[in-house]
Design a protein that fits this description.
This protein starts with a helix and ends with a helix. By secondary structure, it is mainly alpha-helical. The protein folds into two domains: about 70 residues; about 70 residues. The longest helix has 28 residues. Strand 3 and strand 4 form a beta hairpin. The strands form two sheets. It has a two-stranded antiparallel sheet. Strands 3-4 form a two-stranded antiparallel sheet. Helix content is about 70%, strand content about 5%.
């Protein structure tokens, strides 16, 4: 039952990520940039990186929501989950290092606010944990 809820959440999150990508594209095409949003200035320089990031996250969520069968049965699926879990752990660690040492993260001409790194740490740590959890889960 727990897996069912996670898969449904992944499906909803896929829609939200795709909606974010569409809105960024729409704002860009509508020549509404630069604009301020939650204290950050969004410029045309961040459109392509945001679309790439949203595409990768949407593909991962869609694969989890519709494609992967839990518990995992093949070594290929386990390897994929280990790889994804490791990548999420590296991203979480990088954001933790950024906050600890007060480093600036600049994407194009946009200085990414520190509060966004706190959200990134929470999300990537949880996704890393889930990836390792499902990769190590035994068949019943």
């Amino acid at each position: 039952m727990y897996n069912y809820h996670l898969k449904e959440f992944a499906k909803i999150a896929t829609g939200l990520v795709l909606a974010d990508a569409i809105s960024v594209l729409w704002i860009s095409i509508g020549h509404l940039l630069p604009m301020n949003f939650l204290g950050a200035t969004l410029t045309t320089n961040i459109v392509i990186p945001v679309l790439i990031f949203d595409s990768v996250v949407a593909l991962l969520l869609a694969h989890y929501g519709w494609g992967i069968k839990l518990p995992v049965r093949t070594m290929r699926e386990r390897g994929m989950l280990f790889t994804v879990g490791t990548l999420f752990a590296i991203v979480a660690l990088a954001h933790w290092v950024r906050i600890t040492f007060g480093m600036n993260l600049i994407l194009g001409s946009w200085v990414i606010p520190v509060w966004l790194s706190w959200i990134a740490i929470t999300v990537t740590t949880y996704l890393s944990y889930l990836s390792f959890h499902f990769a190590l889960q035994r068949q019943r």
